What does this fold into?
Amino acid sequence: MRAVVCSAFGDPSVLTSAEIAPPVVAPGRVLIRVRAAGVNFADQLLIAGKYQEKHEPPFVPGFEVAGEVLECGDGVEGFAPGDRVMAMPGVGGWAELAVADAADVLKIPDAMPFAEAAAFPVAYGTSHLGLLDRARLAPGEVLLVHGAAGGVGLTAVEVGKAAGALVIATAGGPDKLAVATRHGADHAIDYKSEDVRTRVKELTGGRGVDVVYDPVGGAIFDASLRCTAPDGRILVVGFASGTVPAPPANVLLVKNLTVIGYWWGAYRKLRPQAVRDSLFECLRWWEEGRLRPHVSQTLPLDRAAQALGLLKDRAATGKVVLIP
Ligand SMILES: NC(=O)c1ccc[n+]([C@@H]2O[C@H](COP(=O)([O-])OP(=O)(O)OC[C@H]3O[C@@H](n4cnc5c(N)ncnc54)[C@H](OP(=O)(O)O)[C@@H]3O)[C@@H](O)[C@H]2O)c1
It folds into this structure.
């Protein structure tokens, strides 16, 4: 089968397109013909050897796929060849065929396009469990989403709205903010040209926000500390800016703030049922029209390095998807 192979740690130029042996269908696992595969910021970290979960080269990257079931390993129940599914194979998704544990496979609605399904589990899974379970976002609360036109950020806007919050989106530039607004954001702040703390205070009558969703880190995290209401929660999702923030404990103490560390990937092992239940709810919300996955670019599989470049250059909105 054709696959994208990372043969040494490095930048995306280490990726090659190669013919390799198809994966073996072990007991409890499902073989999928990949019709679309999601691209994530974390793929660049994995390829660089800087991700929290290490895979030694050579390996095939790709955390998430959508396609049809080809074969089920011994002991697999609930799936049959031909089923349309989304899956989280761990790695191995950027290929014509992928295998995943049956627990990491979900059937998708007949009407859901494969590109949307491949863009779905990591981003919506992260935002739904993070906001509703980790941050306990409640209806009527004010949610501030940074990087709100990015992969996880845009889904946080939609999940926040579906959960009944008022959503303030931040992003770099009017085009990105227009995407966040189209996906439900009530207010938009351009962090390239506006002071986030001042604008949030204006929009909230001086009070600040209840919950912050932060996949960016760096200076924007520091700004969040200054515009989160007393008793507020800041969900630490990632560090797309490249800078890991160090929250000053005195500010947390004085304002009764909670900074919540959050890695969805760990919950896939620690709390697998919670992750599945969360994704099932997202799929129900998709069927009700409350979630609308946004795929800004689709590229052929052998252009994976270019796909990662779009994320690095901040040239994508929502998700980028590879098509074998
Ligand atoms: N905790 C978890 O479980 C979890 C799950 C998934 C992802 N993540 C993390 O969340 C972060 C975002 O992931 P993603 O897949 O949504 O990425 P993405 O689609 O590339 O979005 C990242 C956003 O961050 C903003 N950004 C700010 N500074 C940037 C920089 N120097 N380079 C690139 N983007 C920058 C960009 O928006 P502007 O141009 O508008 O600033 C961009 O839209 C990553 O750190 C990822 O590892 C964490």
